[in-house]
Design a protein that fits this description.
Blueprint: E1 3-11, E2 18-25, H1 27-38, H2 43-46, H3 55-60, E3 67-73, H4 74-81, H5 92-106, E4 111-115, H6 119-135, E5 139-142, H7 149-161, E6 165-169, E7 184-187, H8 194-202, E8 214-222, H9 233-247, H10 250-261, E9 263-264, E10 267-268, H11 276-279, E11 282-283, H12 290-324
Parallel strand pairs: 3-8, 3-11, 4-6, 4-7, 5-6, 7-8
Antiparallel strand pairs: 1-2, 9-10
Length: 325
């Protein structure tokens, strides 16, 4: 037997009356449709894009490029700039433009975007950086939500049309803007929310001809002797960005959880024994001694891994409580 299913109604254009729209189907067909509708993987019903791919899937499918987390040391910055600076007399905000310019040179990047905690800070950055950037042939500007959309588009279009450019913003371009040419994103101020960090990372993951990877740059200078101190702005930025990388990459998450909780023959794993996939996410200054680099990577991985383990433990308890009330 077949059943008549009511799908809705439609209006008769001649007399204004309504007529029910129905469909005949057998119970077996209804069950089949219901099973299909439960799964968003069914491309016939929902199309090919609804089932979300992981970061690894996208890189392997040539949809996106790998992303690296990087910074510079004082020695590297001065070497790339080709000038001497009395760093001790500069504030952090005054050093940031020099660090970003050195990063463009070191990483062979040509176009990028920086994210700041406030609109005012993005404007102040552009004001400080403009002489230095224009001296080296860069177009530099900023955008914010108070600007007319036409002006925002004009500045973005100009930045894409020139050979080298840098754009600053607060949170306007965290999503909704797709610029594959960007190969450098600068986290000018530390980000505490890993969702925001994921959106920032996504700005440089788009594939573009000649682009092998995207770089997330932390503009704080890495100390040659001690690295970043725990709790410092640079350290916190590394933690938040690496957490975001892990959240979008199940394989990286497994590697981090393995390393942070694994002991081999009653000893902590050395960084040289870490999975290559994990180590490749960091690009630290070559001028920094290898033991200092390894200690810093170990601290970041262990902190992120322990935080994730605590979250997982709480979720396990929550699931049990929810199940058994």
């Amino acid at each position: 037997p077949q059943r008549r299913q009511v799908l809705g109604s439609k209006v008769n254009g001649k007399d204004g009356s309504r007529k029910l729209v129905t469909k005949r189907s057998s119970p077996e067909q209804e069950d089949s449709d219901r099973i299909k509708a439960r799964s968003f993987r069914n491309r016939d019903l929902y199309g090919p894009c609804l089932f979300r791919k992981t970061n690894q899937d996208c890189v392997e499918s040539n949809i996106t490029v790998p992303v690296k987390l990087c910074c510079l040391s004082r020695k590297e910055m001065l070497s790339e700039l080709g000038r001497e600076l009395n760093i001790s007399s500069y504030t952090r905000d005054e050093i940031v433009p020099f660090a970003i310019m050195a990063a463009y040179s070191k990483l062979n990047a040509t176009k990028g975007v920086s994210f700041h905690s406030l609109v005012a800070r993005s404007e102040e950055f552009v004001e400080l950086a403009k002489p230095l950037f224009e001296e080296t042939g860069f177009y530099i500007s900023h955008v914010n939500g108070k600007m007319r959309a036409v002006e925002q588009e004009r500045r973005l279009t100009k930045s894409r049309s020139v050979a080298k450019s840098h754009m600053a913003n607060c949170q306007l371009w965290r999503e909704g803007v797709d610029v594959p040419e960007w190969d450098l994103v600068v986290v000018a101020d530390a980000v505490s929310n890993h969702v925001i960090a994921q959106q920032i990372i996504g700005r440089v993951s788009r594939r573009h001809p000649g682009k092998e990877c995207g770089h997330v740059f932390i503009p704080d200078l890495f100390d040659e002797e001690s690295g970043f101190e725990a709790g410092s702005e640079g350290y916190n930025a590394f933690v938040s960005i690496f957490q975001a990388m892990m959240a979008d990459d199940p394989q990286l998450e497994r590697d981090v959880l393995f390393v942070s909780g694994q002991n081999v023959e009653n000893r902590t794993l050395d960084v040289t024994e870490y999975p290559p996939r994990l180590k490749e996410r960091f690009q630290l200054p070559a001028s920094v001694p290898l033991p200092v680099q390894q200690e810093f990577i170990r601290n970041i991985v262990v902190e992120v891994g322990e935080n994730k383990s605590k979250d997982s433990l709480w979720l396990n308890w929550y699931n049990l409580l929810e199940k058994y009330k």
